[in-house]
Amino acid sequence: AVVSTQSTGERQISAEEACTGGLVTRIFPEDTFREEVDKVVSHMAKLPPQSMIISKGLIRQEVKEKLLEVNTRECITLRDRWLSDECMTAIMNFLNRKKK
Questions:
Q1: DSSP secondary-structure letter at 99?
Q2: What letter would DSSP give residue 100?
Q3: Which of 17, 23, 67, 72 could form a disulfide with 13 if both were Cys (CB 3.0 to 4.6 A apart)?
Q4: Per-residue pLDDT tens digits for 39-89
Q5: How far apart are CA 59 and CA 8, in angstroms?
Q6: Do 19 and 26 form a contact (C-beta atoms < 8 A)?
Q7: Higher pLDDT residue, 22 or 78?
Q8: Distance (Å, rounded) from C-alpha 60 to C-alpha 86?
């Protein structure tokens, strides 16, 4: 629901909602933001680089496959919508509106 709300531009979401919805993993207070980020970056910089690259690649591959699957479904839906009578009527109404 949080992603849907944000992606449709319905309203802005809070940091807490973004965290609960899985859009972000951590929230840092504004007054200590820089220090907290520096700690995280410092920790990550000490991790084995190749292991990080491989791990990120594995995670991204799964996400990429899901995104491609969703994209395919969206393309089919858009094609169907563009070919619908409703869409043709909306386009005609738009083109035939009076210019102000």
A1: P
A2: -
A3: 17
A4: 999 999 999 999 999 999 998 998 999 999 999 999 999 999 999 999 999
A5: 26
A6: yes
A7: 78
A8: 38
- What is the spatial distance between Cα 80 and Cα 69, in angstroms, rounded to a whole number? 17
21 and 13 in contact (C-beta within 8 Å)? yes
- On whether the CB atoms of residues 25 and 19 are closer than 8 A, the answer is yes
- Answer yes or no: are the C-beta atoms of 2 and 18 closer than 8 Å: yes
Question: Please, are residues 23 and 2 in contact by the beta-carbon 8 Å criterion?
Answer: yes
Say which residue the tokens 């619908």 belong to: 84
CB atoms within 10 A of CB 2: 15
CB 81 within 8 Å of CB 87 = yes
